[in-house]
Amino acid sequence: MPRGSLFALALLVACALAAPPAWGQSADTRNRALIVLDGSKSMNEDAGNGGTRLDAAKQAVGTLLDRLPPGAPLGLRVYGSKVAETSREEACRDTELVVPVGPLDKEAMRSRVEGLTGKGRTPIGNSLLAVPDDLGEAEGRRTVILVSDGGDNCAPPNPCEAAREVSRRGIDLSISVVGLQVNERVRRQLECIAKAGGGTYVGVDDADELADELAAALSRAFRDYEPAGTKVTGGPASPQAEVLQAGLYQDALAPGDTRWYAVDVPRGKSLLASVTAIPSYEDRGQSALGTELLNPDLERVDGDREVLYGAAAGEGGRVRAQSLLMPDFAGAGELPPGRYTFSVEIEDGLETDAVPVEIGVQLLGPGEAPGLTRAAGEVGPAATPTPTPSPTTAPDFAAPAEADGVDVPVVVGIGVAGIAVGLIAALVLTRRRTA
DSSP characters for 220-282? Predict the structure, then answer.
């Protein structure tokens, strides 16, 4: 998988056989979510599993409906499903709110999805500009999950600019993206949309995994964004870094703090570390989330910095997520093993005692795609190196764990409408590269 496609998150553990997220008592009915689904002509292409990409999307939505809590405030917008490409102008206006956002009527949504046919173009920008009105101005989190197999071919409006404009219209409105079997060019555009929209991106190459990624992305929409995972306290400098294994962790940093963490990476593995900062609505001022990854020789190999806004800037509570990647992540050449250390900094400027931070750690073998980091991690070096799994074998996946009395949520890493995905949760989380 290309290095750039590991955009988040954040934020993610490979999840071909992921257990369904636990919605349960933590569901927050004030939160509202909207799926924006690609119904364009390209969705009629073979998905590699005996059906088309549109078939995979229909199956994924059907599986999602079985998992969602009754009455979840969810809607569906579809583009490209009604007008053929004979008239570009008309086809680029083909975006429709087919199920208004409101208490979920599962059978009505299932019926509308099953009736979709792929016909036209891909007006992502126009679709995104419509979603603030779809979601309304209700309290709580407002989450958009865009599912697409292609890039916008109707600009203007530019889809990244449209996403940025939409995210600025709400304190807690974010756009996350699930890319289905996309090429490199499309991936860069979809990552840009997610970054501009304050959400996360995850790519799905196996159409049969689409349901899991969609469920993980939406699970965060219907629960409060509480940090999850094993509680840790990072060290004050690289030599004193807290050693982590693969899994999910949480820390809390005061403004001005820098904490260090370490991961022992065995030969043949790659490290993906996701970091998600979760400022409160009550926090005021302006800060930044900074991350830096050092190799075993203490040389910088990755890092990022993003602004954290407080309430005074009109963006209180905006979650920020970044991902840190080892070099040669795609598996080209020998990966340098050893102890990698990374730092997390919350720059001074926010008026708060501490900012919760979620950290996801993944160790991936050659050809192994990132997924959602769900399970709580263990502190300290692993007793024995983790063997490299075959890239053709679907990884086993445990149900969400309990850590320190907290129900570990699915993270879209970045996911985040806050998810990572997760989401994704996580991922799941989120350094996006748009080179």
Answer: GGGB-----SEE---BSSGGGPEEE-SEEEEEEE-TT-EEEEEEEE-TT-EEEEEEEE---TT
Structural domain span for residue 36: 20-222
198/342 same-domain check: no
From CA 412, how far away is CA 94, in angstroms rounded?
29
Alpha helices by DSSP H, listed for 168-228, are 184-196, 210-219
Residue 13 falls inside a structural domain: no
Specify whether the CB–CB gap between 242 and 233 falls below 8 A: yes
How are the residues of the chain apportioned to helix, strand and coil, as percentages rounded to the nearest 5?
20, 30, 45
- Mind listing the pLDDT tens digit for each residue in 176-224? 888 999 999 999 999 999 888 877 788 888 888 888 778 777 765 665 4
Q: Are residues 189 and 40 in the same domain?
A: yes
The tens digit of pLDDT for each residue in 337-354 reads 899 999 999 999 888 889
Cβ neighbours for 360, distance < 8 A, ≥ 6 positions apart: 9, 10, 11, 12, 13, 229, 247, 248, 249, 272, 273, 274, 276, 373, 411, 413, 425, 426, 427, 428, 429
Based on the fold, state whether residues 33 and 167 are members of the same structural domain. Answer: yes
pTM summary value: 0.54
The length of the chain is: 435
Percentage of residues in the chain with pLDDT exceeding 70? Answer: 70
Decide if 38 contacts 80 (C-beta within 8 A): yes
How far, in Å, CA of 170 to CA of 318, rounded? 10
In the numeric block, which tokens belong to residue 60? Answer: 């994924």
Q: Residue 6 domain-assigned?
A: no
Would you give the distance in Å from CA 375 to the centre of its chain? Answer: 16
The predicted structure's pLDDT at residue 138: 64
376 in the same domain as 323: yes
Do residues 21 and 67 touch, judged by C-beta distance below 8 A?
Answer: yes
Give the pLDDT confidence score for residue 141 in this predicted structure: 73
pLDDT digits (tens, 9 = 90+) for 238-265: 999 999 999 999 999 999 999 999 999 9
